């Protein structure tokens, strides 16, 4: 299988590239502004850029889109940039997928929900409450209009990545570097923290088995940000930190958050009952 991953310098794309390669697939992964070892340049906003990896000549069987403007508050205050990075990039990659007769995989989010009744199954009604959520839903809907598209909705992702910028990795790194942490975190935002490695493993079996449609992929825990931070800190008994639990309202973030987000992995688990997901403790064991 020949797989092109747009956004392989990032958290989800980087893990997909590593796992698919280890499984013996022919993989090309792209970076945009941050080259990581083995990635090729590709700007999804300028598909005709002569510096782009020549996707059409390579003829992938699958194109996985992991790129988006993921800073939720920035999206709220810069809706045009959010549209371009998230929706237009998808339109451009879908056109390339059609040209290559490649299947399309889109990575979406629990932010397509309003957070009133989570954790969510695939049947739940969408109702995004932020610019980011609306643009992810628009990109997801466009993607699903192409036959055979697979959409993985993911949430609260952590794991190994070149920049170590995710919430769990950042706290762990600061502990390892013996930095004192000050954490002001919401106690009322719930989700299912998910290791990017498990997203890659799940995507692999879904692609291998020619699955399409929407799948919710979430870890085995359901917790808020305060609990998540404490689960990480527990692995660093000597860590010095001040933890200030606050309400989301008190944080006054520009974008609204789906408070009861996260997933019930109903569909995936029914089809792959023996697939084991990891949790934060597995990830940090031996830290
Ligand atoms: N992380 C989460 O908790 C989470 C939760 C729900 C959904 N998601 C979704 O999962 C997907 C992957 O997220 P992530 O956490 O892996 O994000 P990430 O680490 O920020 O990675 C984003 C990737 O997109 C690339 N990119 C940005 N602009 C691009 C452009 N114009 N052309 C080509 N590539 C471009 C980036 O390349 P450079 O870095 O090289 O510029 C990077 O490789 C996103 O669609 C996000 O919405 C993430």
Question: Could you please describe the fold and organization of this structure?
Answer:
With 287 residues, the chain is an alpha/beta fold. Helix 1 crosses helix 7 and helix 4 runs parallel beside helix 5. The protein has one domain: NAD(P)-binding Rossmann-like Domain (Rossmann fold, 3-Layer(aba) Sandwich). The chain is built from eleven helices and 13 strands. The strands form four sheets. A seven-stranded parallel beta sheet has the order 3-2-1-4-5-6-11, sandwiched between helices. A two-stranded parallel sheet has the order 7-10. The chain has a two-stranded parallel ribbon with strand order 8-13. The model has no long low-confidence stretch (mean pLDDT 97). It is globular and about 55 Å long. Bound molecules: NADP nicotinamide-adenine-dinucleotide phosphate (NAP). The site of NADP nicotinamide-adenine-dinucleotide phosphate has 29 residues, from helix 1, strand 2, helix 4 and strand 5.
